[in-house]
Amino acid sequence: MNISSPRKVPEKLLLGPGPTPVEQRVLQALAQPTLGHLDKNFVAIMDETRELLRYVFQTKNELTIAMPGTGSAGMETACVNMIERGDKVIICEHGVFGTRMHDVAERCGAEVVSVTAPMGKPIDPEDVRRAIKANPDAVLVGIVHAETSTGVLQPLDEIASYAHDAGMYMLVDAVTSLGGMEVPVDRLGLDMVYSGSQKCLACPPGLAPVTVSPRATERIKNRKTKVQSWYLDLTMIMRYWGQERFYHHTAPVNMIYALNEALRIIAEEGLENRFARHRRNAEALWAGLEAMGLKLLVDYEYRLPSLTSIVVPEGVDEAMVRRQLMEEYNIEIGAGLGELKGKIIRVGLMGSGSNKKNIELFLVALGNVLRKQGFKSDISSALEAVEEVLA
């Protein structure tokens, strides 16, 4: 094998649905010396990371940890631990990741009752209420809080109330919301919530934060059957993250360093300030896009501050838009998924990437690329709209 000079990875501006920009502090933490996964110094970092995760999840849940793997590992963790073969579950589907939750639940042996909404629209709480009434033997309701495939922010208050009144558990996907907006774990009594390190937490991909309510923890401890996944079995993993330090698997030590530093950055900014920044910059982006003459997929009241879906104008090749943004401006954005493939582009403003400079750079770059395809984008009006919002 011929290996020449050391590899140099080019720097890109990540404005897609994830991963997102990672601050130098986090990258430096990732490069710290690797310790053993039972080393007392590493255990201290684990303990601090748990406390920081509770802060960001806005919870007091004892079982709050970071699972190895990306956000999809969080989804698998939630399903394999909460579902036993033969259980009936209600899964809400209004995008690709709700559909994925349905798939994972079925693989766990569940009988799945679907509650659906069109992509780009939220789930109607009344539809969930009817499903709960028709299926009182269901054990949980699963829903995506921030649907990454569409940019819909799903209201949870009514749905959580209906589920708990019926004695069911609430399982929530917060992959693209945690760290960028409120994830109301304790306020709504959400029972199992999972996320991913590579979105608003602004950490490299590789960890899936999970928090579990005391009630759900008891369900997991009292399962009739073993968790079908040995690797994701919380009955054993909670012993490693707790006082017992029972060996289960070799923890991703350096990734825990990185997550710890990313969470420290969030704590320094403060949750309310961070939420306000994400919302303010999202509002500026929306105003700029609409002033440019573009249409957004999601109605204003349900838009996700961390991710925006833009409807591709008629006659514009969205794949070419994405390719030119990358080749000419080093900007990465996301394509549409599922039935929205070719119809939308997805833009993420997450973590340190949510700032005025990135908004303005993206709008100028997008406007220029669209002009090459014959769309008369009004870049000046877009920038003026951004200034007006941020003023």
Automatic annotation (TrEMBL):
Positions contributing to substrate binding: R346
Signal peptide, first to last residue: none
EC nos: 2.6.1.44
GO molecular function annotation: alanine-glyoxylate transaminase activity; L-serine-pyruvate transaminase activity
Residues modified as N6-(pyridoxal phosphate)lysine: K199
GO biological process: glycine biosynthetic process, by transamination of glyoxylate
Any Pfam family hit: Aminotran_5
Record-annotated Aminotransferase class V domain positions: 27-336
First-tier enzyme category under EC: transferase
Cofactor: pyridoxal 5'-phosphate
Keywords recorded for this protein, A-Z: Aminotransferase, Pyridoxal phosphate, Transferase
Coiled coil start-end: none
Family indicated by similarity: Belongs to the class-V pyridoxal-phosphate-dependent aminotransferase family.
PANTHER family named in the record: ALANINE--GLYOXYLATE AMINOTRANSFERASE, AMINOTRANSFERASE CLASS V
Protein name: Alanine-glyoxylate aminotransferase apoenzyme
Species name: Thermovirga lienii (strain ATCC BAA-1197 / DSM 17291 / Cas60314)
